[in-house]
Amino acid sequence: MTPVQSTIVLAMHGAPPTDFPKRELGEFFGLHMRLEHGLLAEEEAAPLRRRCAALERTMLDWARDEANDPFFAASHQLADALRRSTGLDVIVGFNEFCAPDLGEALDQAVAQGAQRVLVVTPMMTPGGEHAEIDIPAAIEAARQRHREVDFRYAWPFETADVAAFLAKQVLEHT
Q1: Residue 144 needs a FRET pair 20 to 30 A away by CA distance; which of 68, 150, 151, 158 works?
Q2: What is the mean pLDDT of residues 116-122?
């Protein structure tokens, strides 16, 4: 029997790069907030939605490195460590502010031949919108696009396991 080719998609939060123009960043967040609350008439919202999408695309495509986005760099360092620990390919996908977004990362895993995609996030506790809503929605959308692929979400984590991990960290610093 041929082993199933598995790939890990590491679902990370994302952060704007520190050198993204402040004016455009403020405009993006202002537009995002206005649009998210749905207080605008559709004829007023449509051009603002296009502008917000253009600003977001610019931010997503912004060149990143350790200096202007330490979180992006650390996300890739975590992916490298996970790759070494598991022996599996690891693709990083972001919930917001960075490319590739989670949907793109899931599609990339499939394009590279994955028959099983294991999604994991370092978001450890329940209650967060990304871990509980956004990531499962991205996985479900990928399932609809790629019905032949087995997508699995390795979350939530057992509370005792998270506590043991944190306790180990605390004990190493006492």
Answers
A1: 158
A2: 98
* Cis, bond preceding 100 (omega within 30 deg of 0): yes
Phi, psi dihedrals of residue 101, rounded to the nearest 5° = -75, 170
pLDDT at 138 over 90: yes
Give CA–CA dist 106/151, Å, rounded. Answer: 9
In 3D, which of 36, 28, 18, 93 has the Cα closest to residue 57?
A: 28
| Dist. CA 99–CA 59, nearest whole Å | 9
Return d(Cα 51, Cα 67) in angstroms, integer. Answer: 28
Is the pLDDT reported for residue 1 higher than 70?
A: no
Q: What is the pTM of this model?
A: 0.92
Sheet holding 89-94, edge to edge: 89-94, 6-12, 116-120, 150-153
Asked if 94 contacts 14 with a C-beta cutoff of 8 angstroms, the reply is yes
3-state helix, strand, coil in the chain (%, to 5): 55, 15, 35
